[in-house]
Amino acid sequence: MDFTFADSLIDYRDRIKDFVDNKVDGFSIMIEEEDCIPPEVLCDAKSLGLFGLSIPSDYGGIGTNMVGKCLIFEQLGRTNNGFTTLIGAHNGVGTVGLVELGNEEQKRRLLPSMATGEKIGAFALSEPESGSAAVTIKTQARRIGDRYVLNGVKSNVTNGPEASVITILAVTDESRGSKGITAFLVEKGAKGLRLGSIDRKMGLRGSHSCSLILEDCEVPTENVLGKEGDGYVNSLRVLTNGRVGLAARNLGSMQKLLELAVKHTTTRYQAGSPISRFQAVQHLIADIGVDVETTRSLTYLTAWMVDQGLKVAKESAMVKYYASEAYCRVADKTMQIFGGLGYLKDAPIERFYRDARIARIAEGTSEIQKNIIAEQLFKEFGAKRATAPTG
Ligand SMILES: Cc1cc2nc3c(=O)[nH]c(=O)nc-3n(C[C@H](O)[C@H](O)[C@H](O)COP(=O)(O)OP(=O)(O)OC[C@H]3O[C@@H](n4cnc5c(N)ncnc54)[C@H](O)[C@@H]3O)c2cc1C
């Protein structure tokens, strides 16, 4: 393993950190209150190339490898997770499928405007009755001549309200189970595609998710992504590698919380001494530090494995599980260190505390990650799996 980074990557990482700490953070309260990312911030994010992290330079993007992407995601995690989610979902499930499975015509047509952020990407697998058991989706796609006609409802689609290109999973052959699901690139304005209600969420202000209603939605055959029937398996692959990126975003948030916590312990005095003198407080800092560094090691190891083309089913589930649980622990402990001040909206702690909670749920709950880890471990040791199917 070699974690020496090219100077250009270090320079880019530092520019993103500067943008996050000195620009986005300045709008934090506004983002929270107005549930919207200011156009000025989006404009800078576009100029910095943040919408093209996963898109190769041939199509106008920056096209970093997974380790590079994690370095950038880590910086983005330092600020409002709503902003991070908008960029992260676009660079993850919103574009990776198209980059890896799209044909040349699809890539030439769609990727350049996605790389600049002119077109935002989204991914719609979940449905009202199908979350963890994604293989049970009900949305149907029927081929009629040179098009497919899609009917169904998708739920919680991140970037749904803003998206111009949505990868939608639908059943093309009910008799074939997971091999009867196909991915479609559905473009904004497609006949029969309608935005449903926008989710009202606990956190992630500035990131919007919504349901999508497909009523005889017409999708031309040239917008099938990959082969018919391969949509589910391909989605699992994209989701598997993408879990590393989620962990990197959580890592950045934890690192920021650690910095805030340490600073607070030296400036907050009780009974005439800084609270950093109290061993109970020191132990909270130590626990946070262990979670940060363990997440960091697991994240970059798994990212490196992805870049080597190694299989990471077990490792990516481990890092997603560990990072999301650790993020919640770290947010909780930081709030304890801040005392009453942490609970108030004046400090960013309560925002991180709310934002952290989704990490254990979205893109596969902690329980599903543990199912995958156990499945892989049983396989590794040639034993029969004792857990229920992951769906
Ligand atoms: C803010 C937000 C953004 C989202 N963005 C997207 C998106 O962009 N695209 C998209 O397709 N989806 C998206 N989702 C949906 C998300 O992926 C699902 O919420 C998640 O997969 C969990 O599914 P569920 O909510 O239906 O929970 P359920 O599947 O109903 O699970 C409920 C509980 O049962 C447990 N459980 C379920 N099955 C098992 C099992 N086999 N073994 C053990 N425990 C189990 C779960 O761990 C959980 O604790 C988003 C959700 C939210 C809240």
Question: What's the SSE blueprint?
Answer:
Layout: H1 7-22, H2 28-34, H3 39-47, H4 66-76, H5 81-91, H6 96-101, H7 104-115, E1 121-124, E2 140-144, E3 147-158, E4 165-171, E5 181-187, E6 193-198, E7 209-220, E8 224-225, H8 231-267, E9 269-270, E10 273-274, H9 279-307, H10 313-338, H11 340-343, H12 349-356, H13 366-380
Parallel strand pairs: 1-4
Antiparallel strand pairs: 2-3, 3-7, 4-5, 5-8, 6-7, 9-10
In CATH's first tier, which class of the largest domain applies? Mainly Alpha
Which regions have little confidence, pLDDT < 50, spanning 5+ residues? Answer: none
Count all strands and give the number.
10
The small-molecule ligands in this entry are:
flavin-adenine dinucleotide
Structure description:
The chain is of the alpha+beta class and 391 residues long. It folds into 3 domains: 7-115, Orthogonal Bundle (Butyryl-Coa Dehydrogenase, subunit A, domain 1); 121-229, Butyryl-CoA Dehydrogenase, subunit A, domain 2, CATH 2.40.110.10; 233-380, Butyryl-CoA Dehydrogenase, subunit A, domain 3, CATH 1.20.140.10. It is 49% helix and 15% strand. The chain is built from 13 helices and 10 strands. It has helices at 7-22, 28-34, 39-47, 66-76, 81-91, 96-101, 104-115, 231-267, 279-307, 313-338, 340-343, 349-356, 366-380; strands spanning 121-124, 140-144, 147-158, 165-171, 181-187, 193-198, 209-220, 224-225, 269-270, 273-274. The strands form 3 sheets. A 4-stranded mixed beta sheet has the order 1-4-5-8. Strands 2-3-7-6 form a 4-stranded antiparallel beta sheet, covered by helices on one side. A hairpin with a 2-residue loop joins strand 9 (269-270) and strand 10 (273-274). Helix 4 (66-76) packs across helix 8 (231-267) and helix 9 runs antiparallel to helix 10 (313-338). The chain is globular. It starts with 6 loop residues before the first helix and ends in an 11-residue tail after the last helix. The mean pLDDT is 95. The structure holds flavin-adenine dinucleotide. Residues 89, 123-126, 131-132, 156-158, 201, 204, 209, 358, 361-365, 367-368, 371, 388, 390-391 line the site of flavin-adenine dinucleotide.
